[in-house]
Specification:
The protein is mostly beta strands. It has one helix and 20 strands. Strands 1, 13, 14, 15, 16, 17, 18, 19 and 20 form a nine-stranded mixed beta sheet that branches. A seven-stranded antiparallel beta sheet has the order 2-3-4-11-6-9-12, with no helix packed on it. Strands 5-10-7-8 form a four-stranded antiparallel beta sheet, with no helix packed on it. This is Pirin family protein.
């Protein structure tokens, strides 16, 4: 089974300083048909105005991944981390028993555009932790690069969840594929550009939900950046 959800069908919020698209129910957007997929709970595409951001707030028992597309996201948390996230960096924060953090765009003239992703953990009540790593475009070019996983395989960031997140850059004749294990779900999110997923055309902001498929093939790309999730059902 492969189901497509178009970009325009996502939830939308405009707070002036923040414009956000919600792939799944979140905050003031609620749709019982879209509460998550497997253990993937949130994908918010956020655009933060210059000099604005999210003040200090708390999370617990969630694996939170930030993936910056443009600009720079300043992060500060109660674990003592003060970091900047440029494009190409992936951040993973395990909220565990509880963490406070803030996220800001300190640039004076540039919007920060990033994805915030929540994945449900396989264990609750763990100690909070943080990790960040740069994944060069060359490592994602023409392939799916594993960037977050339960076991840190291939130099990926580790997380406390039965899920894997891949990132790929594809254009022209470049193709990428992934074998899918039985009993799991997959999710493909098109960050930008155009690409086909198992011969189904997707465009910027579109997503494909896969269940009971044995493989995933990305092809017919045009300046595409893609995230692929291998998920517990």
């Amino acid at each position: 089974m492969l189901m497509v959800r178009k970009s325009a069908d996502r939830g939308h919020a405009d707070h002036g300083w923040l414009r956000s698209n919600h792939s799944f129910s979140f905050a003031g957007y609620y749709d019982p048909r879209f509460m998550g997929w497997g253990n993937l709970r949130v994908i918010n595409e956020d655009r933060v105005a210059p000099g604005k951001g999210f003040g200090t707030h708390g999370h617990r028992d969630m694996e939170i991944i930030s993936y910056v597309l443009e600009g720079n996201l300043a992060h500060k948390d109660s674990m003592g981390h003060i970091e900047g996230l440029p494009p190409g960096d992936v951040q993973r924060m395990s909220a565990g028993t509880g963490v406070q953090h803030s996220e800001f765009n300190h640039a004076s003239g540039q919007e920060t555009h990033f994805l915030q992703i929540w994945i449900e953990p396989d264990r609750k009540g763990i100690a909070p932790s943080y990790a960040q790593k740069t994944f060069a475009d060359a490592d994602k070019r023409g392939q799916l690069r594993l960037v977050v996983s339960p076991d840190g395989a291939d130099g990926s960031l580790t997380m406390n969840a039965d899920a894997r997140m891949y990132a790929g850059l594809l254009d022209g004749d470049e193709e990428a594929s992934l074998r899918l294990a039985p009993g799991r779900k997959s999710y493909v999110y098109v960050v930008r550009g155009d690409v086909s997923v198992n011969d189904t055309a997707l465009h910027t902001g579109d997503a494909a939900y896969l269940d009971q498929e044995t493989s995933l093939r990305l092809a017919q790309a045009r300046d595409a950046e893609v995230l692929v999730f291998d998920l517990a059902a």
